[in-house]
Design goal:
single chain; 120 residues; mainly beta; Rossmann fold; 4-stranded mixed β-sheet; 4-stranded antiparallel β-sheet; 1 helix; 10 strands; 38% strand
Length: 120
């Protein structure tokens, strides 16, 4: 998902593909365990042909230290809470990005992959 942004700030400032406007920055909360690792819930903002209501409030597996910031609300299909609200699914046109690992997210992750294959 990070490669879709304008800029990333991991080891150094790096230009992304600029498909979805925004920046990738590290979690900044000393009370959080970073990386954010484990199961967490996604909350849908918008329904989509691939990301349907059946995924709302489902748990997916996350491993990450960086989040998408300064992104338009219209580009965020779902968000997750971990010390703060952050985008967990983004979309621009027919391009999707997810912060979690669908391949490690059991049945719901496999259903997401199937939806993508069948509807894209």
């Amino acid at each position: 998902m990070q490669i879709l942004s304008d800029w990333g700030y991991e080891d150094k400032t790096t230009r992304g593909l600029g498909i979805i406007s925004g920046d990738i920055k590290k979690f900044r909360n000393k009370k959080l365990i970073i990386p954010h690792m484990g199961w967490n819930t996604i909350n849908l903002n918008n329904d989509d042909t691939i990301i349907t209501n059946s995924f709302d409030m489902k748990d997916f597996y996350f491993v990450h230290s960086y989040i998408f910031q300064n992104i338009k609300k219209s580009d965020v299909l779902a968000f997750t809470l971990y010390g703060q609200k952050f985008p967990s699914i983004v979309k621009k046109g027919n391009i999707y990005g997810v912060q979690f690992h669908p391949e490690k997210s059991h049945k719901d992750g496999l259903n997401l992959i199937k939806n993508y294959i069948l509807n894209s």
